[in-house]
Amino acid sequence: MAQETRHKQIIDLVAERGFVTIDDMAQHFQVTPQTIRRDINYLDQEKLLQRYHGGAGVPSSTLNTAYNDRKIQNLEEKQRIADAIASKIPDHSSMFINIGTTTETISKALLKHHGLTIITNNLHVASILSSKEDFNVIIAGGAVRNRDGGIIGEATVDFVKQFKVDFALIGISGIDDDGELLDFDYQEVRVAQAIIENARQVFLAADHSKFGRNAMIRLGNISQASHLFTSKKPPHNIVDILDENNVELTVTG
Questions:
Q1: Is 102 a residue whose pLDDT tops 70?
Q2: Helix (H) or strand (E) segment spanning residue 48
Q3: Rounded distance, CA 122 to CA 126, Å?
Q4: Rounded to whole angstroms, how far apart are CA atoms 10 and 33?
Q5: Whether residue 63 has pLDDT greater than 60
Q6: Residue 110 and residue 224 in one domain
Q7: Which of 7, 40, 122, 234 has its CA 20 to 30 A from that of 165?
Q8: For the chain, how far is it from start to end, CA to CA, in angstroms?
Q9: Cβ(227)–Cβ(251) under 8 Å?
Q10: Cα–Cα distance between 22 and 93 in angstroms, integer?
Q11: How many CB atoms within 10 Å of residue 122?
């Protein structure tokens, strides 16, 4: 059996049973336990399942990956996405930038621009962009989440609603098969919804691992984006939703 086919069948088996041991998978696929361990390690890195001691299970829909791990996951893909988004942002434009390691990478790609006004609820984004003397960086008020420097809460939502900007640069934790945008923190989602509602164009950044990834809180739908930037061609049903809603697609390769 080809490795790619086995990977798909492992994902299907874990989804069906919830948890499968390494020995059971080795017997099911008639390969060695070492082969299954390599498969699980790869699929865990791609966020397609969760590696546990002795086996694999469905990824958690209630807990996000640790911030320091997310910073380095799929970094090259994030950098290509960031460059593609930066190429679409004109100088002297205004934008929201939300919480996430992808949007932090986008911020670095924007440093060659001039005269940008940035409103953000991400302390790391503010730190990156405040190094440019000709940028106007505005930080939202609210409670600071210590694990990743995100600013959240009702005060943050109210602050965002005071503005109407050219672009919203949005990262997301997961995209379901029906195009639903998913995240892990209700307060963060409320801020992101306000950001989307108060931007003329919404640029959604999502590397390939975000498609099919589980998260518990519904943020909105991919149809609300103006433009999706991703690293690999999305699943066919997602492409259909994009086409039906005139959402532009950029695949960075």
A1: yes
A2: none
A3: 6
A4: 13
A5: no
A6: yes
A7: 234
A8: 27
A9: no
A10: 52
A11: 26
